[in-house]
Write a structure and sequence with these properties.
Oligomer: single chain
Number of strands: 6
Structural class: alpha/beta
Strand content: 35-45%
Helix content: 10-25%
Number of helices: 3
CATH superfamily of the largest domain: Protein of unknown function (DUF3299)
Number of domains: 2
CATH topology of the largest domain: OB fold (Dihydrolipoamide Acetyltransferase, E2P)
Order of helices and strands: HEHHEEEEE
Amino acid sequence: MRLSLLLCGLLSGVLLASNAWAISIFSKPQELSWKDLRQLNYETGEMPSSLSKLRGAPVKIPGYAVPVEGDDGFDFVQEFLLVPVFGMCVHVPPPPPNQVVYVVMNEPVPIENLLDAVWISGVLEVDSIKVGGEMVYETEASFRLIGEAVELYDE
């Protein structure tokens, strides 16, 4: 009897853990705006709980990609900066860190997919990152996104 109760408890725990994992993996990402991201005080690290609770969560952010690193011909890129306005990060001074998301895609994406405004879906982390590369000046980003998908932005 005790053994069957123990096995039932273990099985229930495994099922609950796997359901939580499945919900986090397959749940619809929460759409974020740049207004949401600007609420992070990049000097003190203070942010509202609404932003803090999204750490490690699936999100979807619109913006423009600025490639950082790519293959030899820049046909595919895996690392880029996501910014709210076309042309940011290619000028001096760079935008404030809370207006820059450093994106590392799980798989490289064709550069053609990043030429227009896009939605980037992935897992959000809040982290101060210094980024520099072939295509951008050294810039600081307040956010890192492990990118999973790129979609064309349609209003």
